[in-house]
Design a protein that fits this description.
Helix content is 35%, strand content 5%. The chain is mainly alpha-helical and 186 residues long.
Length: 186
């Protein structure tokens, strides 16, 4: 008896509902068939009819596995390790969103989690979403080397720095301008 994708991973022996251990069997039936010499051969090719591609994961080739995952036929067994995130793991112990951020800025899950838990480094407001501040002149292209990261900011502070072209002199002039104008109005 064969199980269909999406069913619980149970023994393929008819009437047995124990969890899989190896080659489609629970521990008891695996040992029985191994002793008896009736174990099925190790699967090396995709189990989809008409597909001769090499096996990648869960009895499928990479193409069929990706398609089954997109269609929701394969469930992820764990959740993202970033604090307060219950999304399924996509890669490197993180959900798709957190993995994208971590990959873009060359961060580990621990580094990203810490940045999400610290307040904005300018206004000190708690972060609902992190914006990674980094030196844009350091790395060419869309990916950071990780060494040019300055800190984590809220959206408003990150946009403000960007609008000032990351120019400390311009920001200092803006600060002085605001100080002088607020004193004149008082």
């Amino acid at each position: 008896m064969t199980k269909i994708m999406g069913d619980p991973q149970t023994c393929t022996e008819i009437g047995c509902e124990r969890g899989l251990v190896s080659r489609g069997y629970c521990d008891r039936h695996y040992r029985f068939h191994k002793r008896d010499g009736t174990l099925p051969p190790i699967q090396t090719h995709c189990s989809q009819d008409g597909c001769a591609s090499r096996l990648s994961a869960r009895g499928l080739c990479a193409r069929h596995y990706t398609k089954a995952k997109i269609l929701g036929l394969i469930e992820s067994s764990s959740t993202c390790r970033v604090t307060n995130c219950d999304n399924p793991v996509a890669s490197r112990y993180m959900c798709q969103n957190h993995y994208g951020v971590a990959n873009c800025y060359t961060l580990t899950v621990i580094q990203l989690d810490w940045m999400l838990r610290t307040p904005c480094e300018i206004c000190e407001e708690p972060l609902s979403r992190v914006f990674i501040d980094h030196d844009h002149s350091c790395c060419a292209g869309g990916k950071s080397c990780g060494g040019c990261i300055r800190g984590s900011l809220c959206h408003k502070c990150n946009v403000s720095i960007g609008l000032m072209n990351e120019n400390p002199r311009r920001m200092a002039h803006a600060y002085l301008y605001l100080q002088q104008r607020s004193q004149q109005g008082a």
